[in-house]
Amino acid sequence: MNTLFNLEGKVALITGGGGVLGSNMARTLAKHGVITGVLGRNIENVEATATSIRNNGGEAFAISANVTNKEELEKVRDFIITKYGRLDILINGAGGNMPGATIQPDGAIYDMQSEDLQKVLDLNIIGTILPSQVFSEVFSKQKSGVIINISSATAERPLTRVVGYSAAKAAIDNFTKWMAVELAGKYGEGIRVNAIAPGFFIGEQNKALLLLPDGNLTSRGEKIIDHTPMGRFGQPQDTDGALLFLCSDMSKFVTGIIIHVDGGFGAKSI
User: Is the pTM value of this prediction over 0.85?
Assistant: First the structure.
């Protein structure tokens, strides 16, 4: 067995594990022998992911918690340590957008809903910082651990009208670099913090924005594909390579980076 890619017996927790990308990441890690915790607010969604893993011979557990509630996260941490004795991988996959934090085509910045903006910022950036704070305490004692944050193509190239989500994902890039320095500098080289920045993948939240009911592209979808050199939307499994690289010892001297999985979207200009 290639020991650099060997993840057998590791314990991982994935927030937002009921979503399209999060559930795929959970299943991918489980296929490589990782005991996979799937966390989300909707227990039915995360249990469905965990059940699919168990049905395919993997080991997984589902757990409900709010990533913006520190006390709930601490209870999850205590449960994992009591049951498994350690945690090796944290993937901060919880995130999302809201209509009120996006400027409509006939609207302006003055129409943005403050409450929705706050919810988007809380979910994406606070919902990344708090789990990192709570679970990295385990890593600091172990002197080992991996954090993978989920950024976005919108972090470096903010999309028109998508103000809240773009700002939050840009903050995740900044926090990823900050946390990488903080943990390695104080607790040693065994703790690494990196991020994956997916391009455009079809999910429940953006499906209507990108695809018409008949499956053809909306005008927004056409613009995105026109600016994606590979000419298609991402598939969940497209993130597998970056995920396994960052979780394994293949990247043991890699920290503080953002890997773009976007079909070249971020590289294209006029």
Answer: yes
